[in-house]
TrEMBL record:
One Pfam family here: ABC_tran
Keywords, ordered alphabetically: ATP-binding, Nucleotide-binding, Transport
Cited InterPro entries: AAA+_ATPase, ABC_transporter-like_ATP-bd, ABC_transporter-like_CS, P-loop_NTPase
One MF term in the entry's GO annotations: ATP binding
Protein species of origin: Negadavirga shengliensis
Name of protein: ABC transporter ATP-binding protein
ABC transporter domain segment(s): 5-243
UniProt-listed PROSITE patterns: ABC_TRANSPORTER_1, ABC_TRANSPORTER_2
Keyword S-adenosyl-L-methionine assigned: no
Source domain of life: Bacteria
Length: 243
């Protein structure tokens, strides 16, 4: 089966800042792939290239076996609707209740009739998935950081994305809460057979969630292996992340 995401020989520079230099990777259906790299190594640039928010200078990127830089805007919009993002900031609307936050993506992608019929059920199912059905009428400010992260994940799940991009999902959370989020990532993978790209520095999260780890070093895919193999590596550039 073709990879869900394929990045091949991609280059991206900003002036003299050569961020991606012949970077390649593939993500397979149902896989949790972690991208690990130092701050400023280009992880966010890579994600933005995959959804064509910024265009690569060279190389090609295929999502669902289609080259994204040839796509018309409406085709790109349809593609993006199949991709869910969990931002580091959660990006919840503070002035809206949890229910309204979850309904927000439905407004863009479901008709009025569909919403009237199915929004309540979709909201409750997504909240159930993250164990927070009781917060439906609460405001974001009433929730802890970990709960807000889970609500943000519920809002991502409500459109049933085929691909989920997690941007440092456990950053800023205490270890117990971080563990809960990692467990949710695994649950989502199993329940929805989601294909995920997870950007993370959190070794516990990586150990728990990753089927495979890509190390983005010097603009390229420096290593591509399981967490346990990388952990045993003696390569000094790889060891830096573990020591
Ligand atoms: N739009 C842009 N214009 C100019 N430079 C940019 C732009 N976006 C990113 N960069 C540069 O590209 C490099 C990689 O940035 P990126 O945000 O991808 O890093 P990162 O690996 O995600 O870092 P972090 O872990 O700190 O979030 C940085 O040097 C950054 O300044």
């Amino acid at each position: 089966m073709a990879p869900v995401v394929q990045v091949k020989n991609v280059y991206k520079s900003f002036g003299q800042n050569h961020v991606l230099r012949n970077f390649s990777m593939s993500v397979h259906s149902g896989e949790n792939l972690v991208v690990l790299g130092k701050s400023g190594s280009g992880k966010s640039v890579l994600i933005k290239c995959i959804i064509n928010l910024i265009s690569a200078d060279k190389g090609h990127i295929k999502v669902f076996d289609k080259v994204i830089h040839n796509m018309e805007q409406d085709e790109l919009d349809k593609l993006r609707a199949r991709i869910g993002f969990l931002f580091q900031s959660n990006a919840l609307y503070d002035s809206m209740t949890v229910r309204e936050n979850l309904e927000f993506p439905l407004r863009a992608h479901w008709s009025k009739a569909q919403r009237r019929k199915g929004a309540d059920q979709a909201v409750m199912e997504a909240l159930d998935d993250v164990g927070l059905a009781h917060t439906v009428d609460m405001m974001p400010e009433e929730l802890s950081g970990g709960m807000r992260k889970r609500i943000a994940l519920a809002r991502t799940l409500i459109l049933r994305p085929t691909i989920i991009l997690y941007d440092e999902p456990t950053t800023g959370l205490d270890p117990a809460t971080a563990r809960e989020i990692s467990q949710l990532i695994i649950k989502v993978q199993k329940k929805y057979n989601a294909t995920s790209i997870i950007i993370s520095h959190d070794m516990n999260c990586i150990n728990m969630t990753a089927n495979r780890v890509i190390m983005l070093i010097d603009g390229r895919c420096y290593a591509n292996d399981s967490y346990s193999n990388l952990r045993m590596s003696r390569d000094p550039k790889i060891r830096e992340f573990f020591d």
